[in-house]
What does this fold into?
Amino acid sequence: MRLFLLPISTRQSLLYCHRLNRQLTRETTWPDKISTRASNIWLSWEKKESGWQKKVTEYGNKMFQRLPHEEWSLKSIPPMSARRSREEIEGKEEVRIEYPEEVLEESRVLETLRKLGADEKQAFHLKWFLGSIVGMPLSAPVALIPIIPNLPFFYLCFRAWSHWRARSGSQHLEFLLKNNLLKLKPSSTLRTAYRQATLDTSLQQLQEEARSISRSGDSKYTEEDSPEQMLLSKSSGKIVAEQLNIPALALEMERAVWQIERSIKARRELRK
It folds into this structure.
């Protein structure tokens, strides 16, 4: 199993887990089967030229775009199982985290992973998982509407599954960190990809920014000393995905870039 930590801005990164095909085939759980079935139905609706199914996918994709990229990151990490934990402890399954060392220091890699695997993150997703479960019966009256399916119910099902997967991914990450099972590996492939994909910012400037961020624990440090800047554009995701030969990564990076750009712009507007 390979984890990639991909800096999107000078302060925020995207975590992505890439599992080998043999692992996917060997460990397909019933939630994965349901998810695959739902994805196939969604894709068939997207291909329709018109109708309520097409409208549902249009609005649904806009909703997916707004789900926090941290949630998508954690969902990419497979849930724990007895066999997987045993193999990881015994060293039969190597788990490594790859990152571009010229942009991201090792200390920041570990800091980001600890935040994603923290108890607070797991409690957050448990809270909203339970909230989605509670909301399901309340959506029952919508089923009385003819022709159109109970969309609020299916939305709450999706959110419950999404929060469950994110919490499971966070627990798996916490397990890996506590047992020192993650092997940090600076990636020459990512170094090449970032040299091609980064915006008009030299690697030297990025390294200086990384060093300044490491001083953020200083009480005198403020964001104004070194404002957050974007490293990638929406088109950068395709470059990184092609270098790693992981086509699905392009969409994840594009979503993260869109969200982080909006958050940076909103903070700048508030400071005006």
Remarks:
- The first strand starts at residue 2 and ends at 7.
- Residues 217-223 have pLDDT under 50 and may be disordered.
- The two ends are 45 Å apart (CA to CA).
